[in-house]
Amino acid sequence: MTAGAIPAIEMQGISKSYGHVRAVNGLDLSIDEGELFALVGPDGAGKTTTIRIACGILKPEEGRAAVFGHDLSRDPAWIKANVGYFSQRFTLYGDLTIDENIEFFARIHGVQGFRERRERLLSFTRLEPFRRRLADRLSGGMKQKLALACTLIHAPRVVLLDEPTTGVDPVSRREFWLILSELLHQGITILMSTPYLDEAERATRVGLMHEGRLLAVDRPARIRESMRGLVLEIVCSDTRRARGALRLTGAFGDVQLFGDRLNVVVEDAPAAEALVRDALGQAGIDVSSLRVIPSSLENAFISLVRGERGRHDEN
């Protein structure tokens, strides 16, 4: 961010609880104009609460939040005009067509002469051939694109997306990301949450969130590089039995299953390789590949969570 520039989104000391559960705990976050910032974490990490606070739907118990310097609690009219919010359960009207749904949201936002912008959005989202189709008859991916078009109809400067690709097929996910890339080229700021760490790799910056707190905020590559240790990838004949056998050794802090292979984080790769081969050999499990691989965001996230739990246990 250039000196003196106002952050697109700024949150300071934000906390929010539901009963005895602290959903967001003292969160500080600053997002620059034109960024695609991804909040990543498991269910219950506080991602949705953070996004709802960022668009003014929820009020924090502590702290303040602003969009381009406009306080969310003091300037709701400006926020409504300049922020687009895409919720996990975006409400489309199944008995209305694509055209009619976009018109409905345009009128809610008081958009005058919306038809030209609707044409651009239909072309942009590749929904033009289906404009007369009822929303109930759309595929999951098409519904997500229609929801995004409705979110963009009032030309917001900031777009907040809460897990927009969850439950969508891989092809539709890829198309959705192409659309987000085009929004970035237009200078729109995007804050999104996702449970998919592979998606987060595409973001300008990532915030790894766990139990209401940000464990790390940085570019994806820098978060990967900051992870301590080496990632040892194991391909073997029976990954589930191998996972159990390696855990029984007590030599590895965590053994993670990634599809048809295992990952373990080690300090000394040659010593760890020898131990893995010995433990799996005794268990009658054939090892077909054993190598050190570059760390992923998922490896880094798991490592950070384990470190956090270790500090709590010490206290």
Could you explain how this protein is built, in words?
The protein contains 11 helices and 14 strands. Helix 3 (98-108) packs parallel to helix 5. The longest helix is centred in the last third of the chain and has 18 residues, at 297-314. The chain folds into 2 domains: 9-224, P-loop containing nucleotide triphosphate hydrolases (Rossmann fold), CATH 3.40.50.300; 228-294, 2-Layer Sandwich (Alpha-Beta Plaits). It is an alpha/beta fold. It has helices spanning 47-54, 76-82, 98-108, 115-124, 140-152, 170-185, 197-200, 220-226, 239-249, 269-282, 297-314, and strands at 9-18, 21-31, 36-40, 62-67, 70-71, 83-86, 158-162, 189-194, 205-210, 213-218, 230-236, 255-258, 261-266, 287-293. A 6-stranded mixed sheet has the order 6-7-8-3-9-10, sandwiched between helices.
CATH class (first level) name of the largest domain: Alpha Beta
CATH topology of the largest domain: Rossmann fold
**Spatial gap, N to C terminus:** 37 Å
Which parts are unreliable, with pLDDT below 50 for 5 consecutive residues or more? none
**What is the average of the pLDDT values?**
91
Helix content: 25-40%
The biggest sheet amounts to:
6 strands, mixed
> What is the fourth-level CATH superfamily of the largest domain?
P-loop containing nucleotide triphosphate hydrolases
Domain tally: 2
What's the helix-strand series? EEEHEEHEHHHEHEHEEHEHEEHEH
Q: State the helix count.
A: 11
Major sheet: arrangement of strands: 6-7-8-3-9-10
Number of strands: 14
Q: Which structural class should the secondary elements be placed in?
A: alpha/beta
The CATH architecture designation of the largest domain is 3-Layer(aba) Sandwich
Spatial extent as radius of gyration: 23 Å
Give the oligomeric state: single chain
Describe the global form. Answer: globular
Quote the beta fraction. Answer: 25-35%
